[in-house]
Write a structure and sequence with these properties.
Shape: elongated
Keywords: DNA-binding, Transcription, Transcription regulation
Organism: Nocardiopsis metallicus
Number of domains: 2
CATH class of the largest domain: Mainly Alpha
InterPro entries: Homeodomain-like_sf, HTH-type_TetR-like_transc_reg, HTH_TetR, Tet_transcr_reg_TetR-rel_C_sf, TetR_C
Protein name: AcrR family transcriptional regulator
Strand content: under 5%
Pfam families: TetR_C_11, TetR_N
Order of helices and strands: HHHHHHHHH
CATH superfamily of the largest domain: Tetracycline Repressor, domain 2
CATH architecture of the largest domain: Orthogonal Bundle
């Protein structure tokens, strides 16, 4: 999570919350359209219909704005599904990741943020926090599978969840192969088989 005192870290309600929502939506649109190089605080203010000084006073820099956008994305992500079945839980996770990355706007948005994170430390930290939130949200489904006896004791739940989404991000960023439903199912099934075989034991 964004540390207390960082720009955009407060959670007030009312008009301030509406301004934040409008600015973050505008920032996301700008990132999806033009990437990090096209993200300008003045342009974001114009898109959001708020004063330029409001944006500069609250966020101050582009990395601070991106950090707040990532925190908001983590908070707004769909909650974990609990089915009582390891495979069904992993399938739900894989489908959610696939739908996000295959979405015309969200896929471009993630590409832009990941590219920026390779050369901007603050964006990288924000991206790492985003994924830690998402991994922490889904890891309990693996822990519950261990408790049920479906997986070996000592299975690293977080590594299992990472294994589900890693091939999907590879397709988004490297191979260019389709992000289709069949691929998402294959990722989930492969992670489940490997976990049962003890591949992800600590």
């Amino acid at each position: 999570m964004v540390q207390a005192g960082e720009p955009g870290s407060t959670r007030p309600g009312g008009r301030t919350a509406r301004v934040r929502a409008a600015v973050l939506a505008a920032a996301g649109d700008a990132l999806a359209e033009s990437g990090m190089d096209g993200l300008d605080l003045t342009d974001v203010a114009r898109r959001a219909g708020v004063g330029r000084t409001t944006v500069y006073r609250r966020w101050g820099t582009v990395p601070a704005l991106v950090a707040d956008l990532l925190q908001d994305m983590a908070e707004q992500s769909q909650p974990r599904v609990e089915t009582g079945s390891l495979l069904k839980d992993l399938l739900a996770n894989a489908r959610l990741v696939r739908e996000t990355l295959a979405h015309p706007r969200q896929g471009r948005l993630f590409k832009a943020i990941i590219a920026a994170a390779t050369c901007d430390e603050r964006t990288a930290r924000a991206l790492h926090r985003f994924y830690e939130v998402r991994i922490s949200e889904w890891a309990p489904c693996v822990e519950q599978a261990v408790e049920r006896g479906d997986l070996p004791e000592g299975t690293d739940a977080r590594e299992v969840i990472r294994a589900v989404s890693a091939p999907l991000y590879y397709r988004l960023l490297a191979s260019g192969h389709p992000l289709d439903e069949a691929t998402a199912e294959r990722c989930a099934r492969a992670a489940a088989v490997a976990a049962r075989a003890g591949v992800y034991m600590r």
